[in-house]
Amino acid sequence: MLKLLRPAMTRILTPLGRALVRRGIGPNAVTAIGTLGTVVSALLFFPLGQLPVGAVVITVFVLFDLLDGLVARMGGGGGSTWGAFLDSTLDRVADAAIFAGLILYFVSTGDALLTAVTLFCLVAGLLVSYAKARAEGLGLTCDVGLAERPERLVVVLVAACFGGLGVPYILAAGMWLLAAASAVTVVQRVVHVYRQTRER
Q1: Among candidates 121, 131, 120, 125, which has minimal Cα distance to 190?
Q2: CA 140 → CA 25, 110, 137, 143, 199, distances in Å?
Q3: What does the entry list as the binding residues for Mg(2+) 2 (predicted)?
Q4: Which of 91, 95, 111, 143 is catalytic?
Q5: Could you tell me where the DSSP H helices lie in the chain?
Q6: What pLDDT, on a 0 to 100 scale, did the predictor assign at position 3?
């Protein structure tokens, strides 16, 4: 579903992309700004319990993940192997900051169970990304799974936003759902790679 929405979001962001290119701002700078904004927002708003504000601000910066590729395609410079590596690496930094912010929030509220669940989401999310990167480094494909990065971000940000607005149980439900979906995705990717190695 999220992949189907990408073309629409690209059309919306195109004018902003053109403006950045005209000002000489390249995709790597866009990537760095998006990551910095996400990290600062997550570690500032979430631990203070300002979940709705944090979720909205982080969503704005997450859109930079679409914008950097758009700027590169428009000739903003920096669209390269280095740019792809930087983007993937900083995505992990941003994801870690989001979950770290929520972990600090749950610690401050004394909720040990959700602290542990969110920590599991953080680790499982990194494993999902690592499995794909390692498989592709071995010349295999690994573009499968129930919960890829966009889906994980939607679940955690929506749950944080509405949980912070007082909707009962949605934050806990979101974290448990994300934990389960991330675990399933790791297993799916391991099985997918195993099947490819058996066919060789």
Answers
A1: 131
A2: 34, 43, 7, 10, 11
A3: 65, 87, 91
A4: 91
A5: 2-22, 27-45, 51-62, 64-73, 81-109, 112-137, 149-164, 170-199
A6: 59
Buried b (16+ CB within 10 A) or exposed e, 157-189: bebbbbbbeeeeebbbebbbebbbbbbebbebb
Per-residue model confidence (pLDDT) at position 1: 47
Where does residue 131 fall: left (phi above 0), alpha (psi -120 to 50 degrees), or beta otherwise?
alpha
Binding residue ranges for a CDP-1,2-diacyl-sn-glycerol: 28-31, 69, 73, 80
Residues contacting 186, CB < 8 A, separation 6+ = 124, 127, 128, 131, 145
The C-alpha atoms of residue 52 and residue 82 are separated, in whole angstroms, by 34
In the chain, the amino acid numbered 140 is: L
Q: Rounded to an integer, what distance in angstroms lies between the CA atom of residue 68 and that of residue 158?
A: 23
SS3 assignment, position 138: coil
The encoded tokens of residue 146 equal 């129930």
Which residues participate in the annotated binding site for Mg(2+)? Answer: 65, 68, 87, 91
95 given a catalytic annotation: no
Residue 48 three-state SS: coil
